[in-house]
Design a protein that fits this description.
heterodimer; A: 564 residues; alpha+beta; Immunoglobulin-like; 3 domains; 11-stranded mixed beta sheet; 5-stranded antiparallel beta sheet; 10 helices; 26 strands; B: 587 residues; alpha/beta; Aminopeptidase; 2 domains; 9-stranded mixed beta sheet; 3-stranded antiparallel beta sheet; 12 strands; globular; membrane (chain B); Gaa1 (chain B)
Chain lengths: 564, 587
């Protein structure tokens, strides 16, 4: 242990600008579930954009570093999610993500062939994360004009360098978790990552893991930039099924592990426990903890903080197992101000209508939202039927960006800037027709249907409390991801449900029947026609009967004219 | 083909067909009926089997520990229902919430076109309560529906108890891959219709409903529970949906497989084992069945709660395991018994044999029209062989369809007028108006062609009959494809009548036979026949009253749920029958 520490010191002296932080936020939810959010941040001060060959990697994973330099990536955001975030029960997540896989990338403006680079990048990422990202092609890639702005520094807003794609069908499992864990400097050997045992993480109501890479400022003057790699993992545990209704949780119960040490490479390693809703929490271990207040998503929360880098956190047992019991939940959860849902209306296999409902629960403030819808080409949107209504009145969007689809080439892209009136529901409807595919384009017979990815709603939601706009101050990681520009509002991105649509599917046993039928028809029909065309017709000499012939012979002998 | 391209042989074939037309028709009719009868014979039918591998009846838990609690919940529900005098909405919401579901309500209201005397309702207002059990780690794309109607009186309390018991049990399991919606609906089918329309945001029947707040993706399958007693002996499977829609056969098979596995008697249409045809064509719409954009099936008279409900758990579990849409197995079938089924390929020939009679008659008429019998050697007859007047054929067609339209529209339009002038209730007024229009159709002017073209021509009725016969063949063919029972019963009565009616038959006798074989009389006989099959025979008066209520139910089902039987009979079958009536009285 001592040796490792010395080594670390030595390395830190020679290369002082690498930094690794880890933290875990645990928030008991009003519904009786527990939300656990891991964040790992690796900072790396280097610049491999200006032709520098970088071959020395320390904390930053080499596989990702090479990807960034090879494909000239400016920003990369990738998430894998299993389950749907229930905003109305759980509130806003720290890191929003849609069900399935999501990937969006800003390229450097030096890239000439963006589509080609994107194609290669998705294939490489598919290998790194063991996911089906190679299914991302031009038919599910869009270039949003306003919804996805760079989160790091840089003023590139030309959306030619942006690519966005989702795979709503993607299933996330341990095979995706393992490569994700390998990107961490300590792997899953030490630090918070030891808690990430897949048998527990996937025995949950929601699971989401993400990787975000972006350039950030090193200091407040922004003289030097560094690369930030954030790895986040969000899990919601359902204590109703496992806890028999008892309001109690512990690290061991959730993860079947306890903590024994921080990651030795981490400069900071902390556990935050949200105690705002449950002031009368009783802890099992009487460990000294710090209480801090932080403003997260427009709400002032109180956290009790455990610093894993301090030895006395682990107590005499040399292991940390936090256990909290609380009484039944009192008071209502702060209702999220923005909420959205989406569904397909209508039945049958010809037409349908996509309804997107957006709820603004703010009692007196209206605010604008950006809605992004990317619909596959095989749903033919009738854009003239697009209606936006709130409170029974037509609500004209102030900005619409629509890119029609091209069959088998690109999807529909619809972006709108809509003002949501206070305390209202805004409904966006658009009708569509289901296309007939070519017969090789259908999925194999056993299928659920065709998936349409979530729509994305990005908004600056008015905040109840003043937001922290100082981006350089030391803050918990979970509250510092989305940069905050003004005090009165905060940025929220929410995703709606993906849709499952059935397309008119022919009965694929039919070709056999059709072949049989056409063969019969051709054989019989063509045969008889050919027969008629080639046969030479003659007037048939009636063949006289035997009696008549004998009679005629006799008549000829007698010299009388024969019978007709 | 060689046969047809050779004029001599063609002539011979046509001669044969026209000469032996009547015997061939008779043989076809008998063969068709015999074929249909044969479907009940077990060696001729297929054994049921599971097509879908994911739904095999293995690997399921076979116990449901909370049976007693479900019964207690049922009793509690009954008490609250009595106190609230209807659906105890608040209690249901609270109970579902305490079981960890996301609970929503939907209000609906509907004014019936005329008061329903069977169920004593006119202005219907109600509330549906449903709770969604969100599947962990599933993105809300698929849902299963489990529903129990909240019936008036003491019926069905146990079903609601069982539903809530299942909700509690399911909530504690982790393996759900699809959202499960637990729905308690008021006013049975009207509530169900309102909920389904709300869920799919369509409005096809004019119900007022409040929009739904929560959804669970596209509905993959649904089960409906009806359970009215704590201890009952057997489970009955009700498959028929609206307009003869049937659920995927795998659902029924799965249910039967579970019943067999646990040794519970399972019946279909109340008949346990003996093969028995579902001869309820016209009745299909009159029975309370579940309908909607998806096929539904109701299961009522469930076995004792404690032991039987794991069959539902199993069923739900298996549906949960489905990795695909229910696309395998059969959607068109008849079930003589639970262990056997008749697929569409086996039962359609029975109908085909009946339909071929109409085609043979049409061929016969066509030949007669094309080669007029040489009557006289002089040319005067040839001059009279002018092409048949279009008007003389068109007029009866238009008149009979107008009568049909009147039969469809007037009963409901003029019920207020009828109630003013006659001492009857609204429902009676509607039914009696319908019967009056139906009867009045018989007395319509049948010889309009004489006004138009002076003298009726022998040719003209042949043309009219040719058209009528083809019309009927197409009509019955389409009906039988969609709803075999209805199509077959109509064919059984209408085809012989259509085949042999000409103006030259004895008028009185033929008219009597035609009336007996008309759709309304068929319905009347079926009412008696059905009662007989149920082993509750009725007297003629009761049967007549039942007949009247069946008609009013048919009209109500059409306007409430979009059942197609009434418009089909009024707008198509009845006018078609009138054409033949017209031919009979052709002068």
């Amino acid at each position: 242990m001592r040796y490792v520490h010395d080594l670390q010191l030595l390395v830190t002296l020679t290369h002082p600008k690498d930094d690794f932080q880890e933290e875990l936020v645990i928030r008991p939810l009003q519904s009786g579930d527990v939300y656990a959010s891991f964040q790992f941040r690796t900072l790396w001060e280097t610049d491999f954009m200006k032709g520098n060959k970088v071959s020395h990697y320390r904390l930053f994973p080499k596989s990702l570093g090479q990807v960034i330099s090879k494909f000239s990536v400016r920003e990369l955001h990738i998430s894998f999610t299993q389950g749907y975030w229930r905003t109305m029960q759980w509130g806003q997540p720290f890191m929003p993500s849609p069900p399935g896989a999501e990937l969006w990338v800003w390229f450097q403006d030096s890239v000439t062939d963006v589509d080609g680079t994107w194609k290669e990048l998705t294939n490489v990422l598919s290998g790194i994360f063991c996911a089906s990202l190679n299914f991302i092609d031009s038919t599910n890639t869009v270039q949003p004009s306003a919804s996805f702005k760079p989160l790091g520094i840089g003023n590139v807003t030309d959306h030619r360098f942006l690519r966005y794609a989702t795979l709503p069908r993607e299933i996330v499992c341990t095979e995706n978790l393992t490569p994700w864990k390998k990107l961490l400097p300590c792997g899953s050997k030490a630090g918070l990552a030891v808690l990430m045992k897949s048998e527990k993480l996937f025995h949950s109501s929601f699971h989401s893991q993400a990787v975000h890479i972006r350039p950030v400022c090193q200091d407040s003057e922004c003289t030097t930039t560094s690369w930030e790699l954030r790895q986040t993992l969000n899990v919601v545990f359902d204590l109703h099924t496992s806890g028999q209704g008892k309001r109690e949780w512990s690290l061991f119960k959730m993860f079947s592990r306890t903590l024994t040490e921080a990651c030795p490479l981490a400069s900071s390693s902390k556990i935050y426990i949200d105690i705002t809703d449950n002031p009368q929490v009783s802890f099992l271990h009487n460990i000294l903890s710090l209480k801090i207040q932080a403003v997260v998503l427009g709400d002032r929360r109180t956290f009790s903080v455990y610093d894993l880098t301090e030895a006395n956190t682990f107590g005499s047992m040399r292991s940390l197992n936090l256990l909290i019991r609380w009484k039944s939940s009192e008071g209502d959860m702060l209702r999220p101000l923005l909420h959205a849902e989406r569904y397909v209306a209508g039945y049958g296999l010809q037409t349908g209508e996509i309804h997107t409902l957006m709820y603004n629960y703010h009692p007196f403030r209206s605010f604008p939202i950006l809605l992004l819808d990317s619909v596959p080409w095989y749903l033919r949107l009738y854009i003239h039927t697009l209606t936006v209504t709130s409170k029974g009145k037509d609500n004209k969007p102030s900005y619409i960006h629509y890119q029609p689809s091209k069959d088998r080439v690109r999807p529909h892209l619809l972006e709108m800037l809509v003002q949501l009136p206070p305390n209202s529901v805004t409904e966006v409807t658009v009708q569509f027709e289901r296309a007939l595919l070519k017969w090789t384009e259908y999925t194999p017979d056993p299928n659920h249907g065709f998936y349409v990815g979530s729509s994305v709603i990005s908004a600056l939601v008015p905040s109840m409390v003043a937001m922290d706009t100082n981006n350089t101050k030391e803050r918990p990681l979970f509250s510092s991801f989305f940069p905050c520009k003004e005090e009165s509002s905060y940025f929220v991105r929410i995703y709606t449900e993906p849709l499952l649509v059935n397309l008119p599917t022919p009965d694929f046993s039919m070709p056999y029947n059709v072949i049989c039928l056409t063969c019969t028809v051709v054989a019989v029909g063509y045969g008889s026609l050919y027969n008629l065309l080639t046969r030479s017709f003659q007037i048939e000499e009636p063949n006289p009967r035997l009696a008549k012939r004998i009679a005629n012979v006799i008549r000829r002998l007698r010299g009388v004219p024969p019978l007709a | 083909m060689g046969l047809l391209s050779d004029p001599n042989r063609r002539r011979a074939l046509i001669n044969l067909l026209t000469r032996l037309n009547a015997p061939i028709c008779a043989v076809c009719y008998i063969a068709g009926v015999a074929w249909f009868m044969g479907l009940a014979f077990e060696p001729f039918t297929l054994r049921t089997y599971m097509s879908e591998n994911a739904m095999g009846s293995t690997m399921v838990e076979e116990r449901f520990p909370a049976g007693e609690r479900a019964l207690a919940t049922g009793r509690e529900f009954a008490a609250h229902k009595k106190r609230a005098g209807g659906m105890p909405v608040d209690w249901l919401v609270k109970t579902m919430q305490s079981r960890g579901l996301e609970v929503f309500t939907q209000k609906f209201s509907r004014t019936l076109p005329f008061p329903d005397e069977n169920k004593e309702r006119y202005m219907v207002k109600g509330t549906n309560v449903y709770g969604i059990l969100r599947a962990p780690r599933a993105p809300r794309t698929e849902a299963l529906v489990l529903t129990a109607p909240c019936s008036p009186g003491d019926d069905n309390n146990q079903a609601v108890g069982l539903l809530l018991g299942l909700a509690q049990y399911f909530r504690n399991q982790i393996y759900w891959a699809k959202d499960i919606i637990f729905l308690v609906n008021e006013h049975d089918l009207i509530g169900m219709q309102a909920w389904l329309e709300g869920y799919h945001h369509t409005n096809t029947t004019g119900i007022d409903w409040s929009p739904l707040q929560g959804r669970g993706g596209s509905i993959q399958a649904a089960l409906s529970l009806e359970l009215s007693s704590d201890i009952i002996t057997s489970l009955d499977l009700v498959l028929e949906g609206l307009n003869g829609q049937l659920p995927n056969l795998d659902l029924a098979n799965l249910f039967y497989a579970f019943c067999q596995k646990i040794g519970v008697t399972c019946t279909i249409q109340g008949k346990p084992c003996c093969p028995d045809h579902d001869a309820d064509g016209n009745e299909a719409s009159q029975r309370p069945t579940m309908g909607g954009p998806r096929a539904f099936f109701t299961c009522h008279h469930c076995w004792q709660v404690r032991t039987n409900d794991f069959s539902f758990i199993n069923q739900i579990l298996k549906l949960n395991n489905l990795l695909e849409r229910l696309h395998q197995s059969y959607f068109f079938y008849l079930m003589p018994s639970l262990s056997h089924f008749v697929s569409i390929g086996y039962y359609m020939p029975a109908f085909g044999l009946l339909a071929v009679i109409l085609l043979l008659r049409a061929l016969d008429l066509w030949v007669q029209l094309a080669t007029p019998p040489v009557r006289t050697e002089d040319g005067i007859a040839d001059l009279e062989q002018s092409s048949p007047e279009v008007l003389s054929v068109l007029t009866p067609l238009v008149i009979s369809h107008l009568t049909g339209a009147a039969l469809y529209f007037f009963p409901i339009q003029f019920q207020a007028t009828a109630v003013e002038h006659f001492p009857v209730s609204e429902s009676e007024a509607v039914v009696l108006t319908a019967i009056a229009i139906y009867t009045a159709g018989l007395a319509l002017p049948h010889n309009t062609h004489r006004l138009l073209s002076g003298e009726g021509v022998e040719q003209d009725w042949r043309v009219l009959k040719l058209i009528a016969v083809l019309y009927m063949a197409v009509l019955l063919g389409c009906t039988a494809l969609i709803n075999f029972s209805l199509g077959f019963i109509l064919a059984l009565t209408l085809v012989p009548m259509a085949a042999f009616i000409t103006p030259h038959r004895p008028k009185v006798l033929s008219a009597f036979i035609m009336v007996i074989l008309s759709p309304a009389c068929t319905l009347l006989f079926l009412v008696f026949f059905f009662q007989d099959l149920q082993e509750i025979p009725v007297s003629f008066e009761d049967g007549w009253m039942l007949f009247l209520s069946v008609i009013s139910q048919g009209i109500l089902d059409h306007s409430l749920y979009g059942s197609l039987v009434y418009p089909l009979i009024a707008l198509m079958v009845y006018p078609c029958w009138l054409l033949f009536w017209n031919i009979l009285f052709w002068k």
